Amino acid sequence: MVANPAQAVSLLTAVSYVGGYHRAPGRRLVGLFAAMYDAGLSPAEAIGLSEDDCTLPRRGWGSATLHRTRPTAGKRWTDSGEVHDDRGLKNRAVEDTRVVPLPPWRH
Questions:
Q1: Residue 52: pLDDT band with limits 50, 70, 90
Q2: Which of 29, 31, 39, 80 would be a feasible disulfide site paired with 15, CB 3.0-4.6 Å?
Q3: What residue ranges in the chain does DSSP mark as E strands?
Q4: Phi-psi region for residue 6, left (φ > 0), alpha (ψ -120 to 50) or beta?
């Protein structure tokens, strides 16, 4: 089930307070859940997304170019020793990308 727009705003407001209003964990969670809701990304795709991958015009629709996923595997199970593995997009060649539309910013 997908949240409706009012529920999504409530969720984003609530997670912004994780770790305290001015602390980083809440701000990162807002970005993660907003990307998942607005662009329909999986958690691994949202974690792999960076600002450089996004075209964010002041008005109108933007886009995100996905080129990797960062699934959680655990430090013991990755070659790099990091929590997240760095992989290409699921069911695609390693160098393939996928462009996802981003809706206009709502105030």
A1: very high
A2: 29
A3: 54-55, 62-66, 98-102
A4: alpha
Q: Is the entire prediction scored with pTM above 0.70?
A: yes
DSSP helix/strand/coil, 18: coil
For residue 92, the one-letter residue type is: R
Q: Is it the case that residue 63 has pLDDT exceeding 90?
A: yes
Per-residue confidence (pLDDT) for residue 106, from 0 to 100: 66
Q: Which residues contact 82 (CB under 8 A, 6 or more apart)?
A: 75
15: which residues sit within 8 A by CB, 6+ positions away? Answer: 26, 29, 30, 33
Interatomic CA distance for residues 63 and 91, integer angstroms:
21
Count of H-run helices and E-run strands, the chain: 3, 3
Q: Which amino acid would we find at residue 71?
A: P
**How much helix, strand and coil, in percent to the nearest 5, is found in the chain?**
35, 15, 50
Region 88-103: what's the mean pLDDT?
81
